[in-house]
Amino acid sequence: MSAASVEFELTDLIDFAVNQGNGVKGLSNLGIKTIPQKYILPPEDRLNQNQIAQDESIAVIDVSNWDDPKIAASICEAAAKRGCFQIINHGIPLEVLENVKEARHKFFELPDEERRKYLKENSPTPTVQLKTSFSPLAEKVLEWKDYLTHLYIPDDESSKLWPSVSKDQVLEYIKWAKPIIRKLLELLLKGLNVKKIDETIESQLMGSLYVNLVYYPVCPNPELASGAGRHSDISAITILLQDDVGGLFVQGTKADQWIHVTPVKGALVINIGDVLQIVSNDRYKSVEHQVTVNGRRNRVSVPIFVDPAADTVVGPFPEALESGEKPIYKHFVYSDYFNYFFSKGLGRKQTIELAKK
């Protein structure tokens, strides 16, 4: 059988892409001309040109002076209105950003047997794992992406067991990103009249960091597939570094309109997640977004998901209710929310609906 005519039964596809760790990189390397049926979106879920908003854009905020009240106001406004914005002049050297993107290339260019050492059943530590799609055993349609996910735990020795070709670059990026994460949350919380991030709030909003090196290989049928289906993140915030290929779209003002988040060299995309929407009692909005794939170029992104600690109880902050507002959300243990999110395929903002009273 020629490479161009390779076909998979569903069980064979799951075995090849998921169990054997070949992922969509392996499919792309086969030279297939048509993606397997399991990756094809139903027509109603495909993003078409008519849905791309031409008159809306995502705010790009210069944060070179964090103490400027206008910057704080711009960030809070963008978080409330759109749930997404980009920041520039944030202080992370361009070299650090380029190095962590290059780390993705280095890892996914490793021989197959080297990459497979980081599959869940093989990985030397649960804090680093090679994965494909989102939740491949639960999804109706698989996503055209592979990624290496890292759970960062301060002062934890397990990071020494991360892949040597990418470990140092990821840790250096985290080192530079942590103060920016904290500053962003401080400004957003001041907008809720929360005066200080104490240990309790730190656990509630930034108790754990997940850093992914995401690889979207060239797709032979990009109009039929998705790099990530429409969804909101369950994090407090997500810090996203993207390359110049583009493909990230966020919900526009109209329900059926999508705004392309145009890549800006050196910028970081900030997505508001479900947790911040919940603790703010809907003052801030978690942004629904999706990712398209490309038929000519590989795409790279590096998100940092800023999550609560697993055992943290999450619910509206008292400060968000000081004017007499009724709480929209109940209190829940974050691990329950997290596990439900990953127990199913991506589905818009379904998870946050379960948290409502």
What does this structure look like?
One of its GO terms (molecular function) is metal ion binding. One of its GO terms (biological process) is coumarin biosynthetic process. There is one protein chain. Helices cover 28% and strands 19% of the residues. It has an eight-stranded mixed beta sheet with strand order 1-2-10-7-12-5-4-3. The protein is globular. The N terminus is likely disordered.
Distance between the termini: 56 Å
Order of helices and strands: HHEHEHHEEHHEEEEEEHEEEEHH
In the predicted model, the low-confidence regions spanning at least 5 consecutive residues are 1-5
Please state roughly what percent of the residues sit in beta strands, choosing from under 5%, 5-15%, 15-25%, 25-35%, 35-45% or over 45%.
15-25%
Count helical runs.
10
Class by SSE composition: alpha+beta
By CATH, the architecture is named: Sandwich
Topology (elements, then pairings):
Elements lengths: L9 H10 L3 H7 L30 E3 L6 H13 L2 E5 L5 H15 L3 H4 L12 E5 L13 E7 L14 H24 L8 H8 L1 E9 L11 E4 L5 E6 L5 E4 L6 E3 L7 E5 L1 H6 L9 E3 L7 E9 L5 E2 L17 E2 H9 L7 H5 L3
Parallel strand pairs: 1-2
Antiparallel strand pairs: 2-10, 3-4, 4-5, 5-12, 6-11, 7-10, 7-12, 8-9, 8-11, 13-14
Helix pairs in contact: 4-6
Cofactor: L-ascorbate
Protein name: feruloyl-CoA 6-hydroxylase
Organism: Coffea canephora
